Amino acid sequence: SQQGEEDPQALSIQEGENATMNCSYKTSINNLQWYRQNSGRGLVHLILIRSNEREKHSGRLRVTLDTSKKSSSLLITASRAADTASYFCATDGDSGTYKYIFGTGTRLKVLA
Amino acid sequence: SQTIHQWPATLVQPVGSPLSLECTVEGTSNPNLYWYRQAAGRGLQLLFYSVGIGQISSEVPQNLSASRPQDRQFILSSKKLLLSDSGFYLCAWSMGLGGNSPLHFGNGTRLTVT
User: Fold this and answer.
1) Cβ pair B99:A45 closer than 8 A
2) Is the pLDDT of residue A79 over 60?
3) Are the Cβ atoms of B103 and A90 closer than 8 angstroms?
4) Which residues lie across from B65 on neighbouring strands?
5) pLDDT digits over B49-104, tens only?
6) What does the pLDDT look like over A97-111, one tens digit per residue?
7) Distance in Å, alpha carbon of A95 to nearest chain B alpha carbon
């Protein structure tokens, strides 16, 4: 079963605008990760945030985590056409396991 | 550096035929290995994972099986494919407990069962 649900399912913005995607999950977690998938390709890891962290930055990416609400958000600032992709959150599911459970993804389209 | 190879990239197979997808990892030892399936426009469904040679955990009862005959080799198989087995199959590896480190994905195999 899927742990996370991303919102929105699809997002279309103009180049230069910011894009925000949200992820909600169901169980307690140790870590949450965000991945990017270009069409027809494998996923690429973007950022990992631990349950005791509230915010993390990596270049134009900003991730927040609210464990009380079981939610996370990914903000991409100053978007570019090359950011067009699907974005997924992933959690460790049951604590202490080897599983990575993915959400349903947000399809981002950045218009030039 | 570590690399992951997955093949073939695309595959068209008739219903009832067998399947074998292979994945190998280079540049690391004793990785955790994973098979995921992705339906068109959907999220990833965890099929199998392995934390060592011969150790396979199955997440979803289905028409597929997995094996890990060598430390860095992971194989996904089926004796008789169903139409519902069509999808995008992704192999991945990681180190450590789930969620503690990134997953590294191969480029996937697009399987169409006709």
Assistant:
1) no
2) yes
3) yes
4) B77
5) 999 999 999 888 678 999 999 999 999 999 999 999 999 999 999 987 666 789 99
6) 778 889 889 999 999
7) 8
Of B25, B21, B18, which is closest to residue B36 (Cα–Cα)? B21
With CB atoms and an 8 Å threshold, state whether A90 touches B99.
yes
Name residue, tokens 């503690």. B100
Interchain CB distance below 8 Å, B49 and A88: no
Q: Shortest CA distance to B107 belongs to which of B93, B94, B89? A: B89
Both tokens of residue B48?
A: 């199998």
Where do we find the tokens 């590294």?
B104
CB A30 within 8 A of CB A95: yes
Task: Give which of B37, B97, B112 to mutate to test A binding, by max A Cβ within 10 Å.
Answer: B97
Rounded to whole angstroms, how far apart are CA atoms A101 and B79? 27
Here the tokens at position B45 are: 């469904």
Peptide bond into B61 cis (omega under 30): no
CB contacts, 8 Å: A31 with chain B: 99-100
Q: What is the DSSP letter of B100?
A: S
Interchain contact, A90 vs B105, CB within 8 Å: no
Name the residue among B17, B16, B61 with its Cα closest to residue A1: B61
